[in-house]
Fold:
Amino acid sequence: MSGIYIHIPFCKQACHYCDFHFSTSMKKKEEMVLAIAKEIQLRKNEFEKEIVETIYFGGGTPSVLENSELQLLIDTVYENYNVADNPEITLEANPDDLSKERIFELSKSPINRLSIGIQSFFEEDLKLMNRAHNSTEAKNCLQEATKYFDNISLDLIYGIPGMTDEMWKQNIETALSFGIPHISSYALTVEPKTALKKLIDTGKIAEPQDEVASNHFMILVEMLQKNNFIHYELSNFGRENYFSKNNSAYWLGKKYIGVGPSAHSYDGEKRGWNVANNSLYLKAIHDNILPIETEILSISDRYNEYIMTGLRTIWGVSLERIKNEFGTEYLEYLNQQTQKFLNDDLVYVSENILRPTAKGKFLTDGIASDLFFLNLK
Structure:
């Protein structure tokens, strides 16, 4: 199984917390779509022996593209790659782009999964984050989207300054009321060089509190599990048969090609990333040059990535795989480093699989970093 990720580097406006690559100017949108289509074609030999099972439009805000532009990119994939009979084709979309007419049009396209950036149903939260939509648009688009799409995911953010436990519970209850089968939820994080960081530094917004975020996370897990959601990855919850195939492939170490400015690629042995500059990207593609840097992953890199992704998912870290793929030195190191977390009831081992406990889930990234093998080879 392999996937193609398509990065659309445009947004109507900049959310205060976002540090992804995008531009709020749409002047080069048509040129960019044609360049991305050309990159898809230029890289077809990389997947000569692969079957593409997922196509994912991320960004940025892919829903700013016209349906004809999305169709062009999908057609280009089909023309140049071996695509599975029923691929998962996901479009990230913002509520303000999802009018009744647009949702109906999308339902007639090959796109069969929507990932909708709700973030919160409270007006004050949306204003704090500088989202382009309002609460009414969020609810209206879900009401309409569920008429035409069975496979829908929505994003929610917790730990927002001023968000009480009761408000967070209401957000989750509102999401559940629409019968959504998949929810991705993240703590509000303060990234360098974002508007949010500046607003906090100048005292205009309070800094998010880890204790609040941790409590919101526990509320989220409890409420969704009671509603038959499976907590299959640290930030992702899905009902049975509704896990994201695209994201699951990342966590399970499958191959993927990332096209568009700043997009990342992985083939099991090396990782690559495109230049995060729209003008430089367009010039390179125009000159038939792939604007990509690559690095060969060392055995320690691959071990560390497996630890990080494995601990975040229900599949955990296989001690047998550690031994077979990385060697006894890595297994002995892992067992040694794991002991303190076993003693603190933050991780456990069952059937030779290492996983975080309920208590340890919110601390997964920190635990993983302590298990990394730092003597790189």
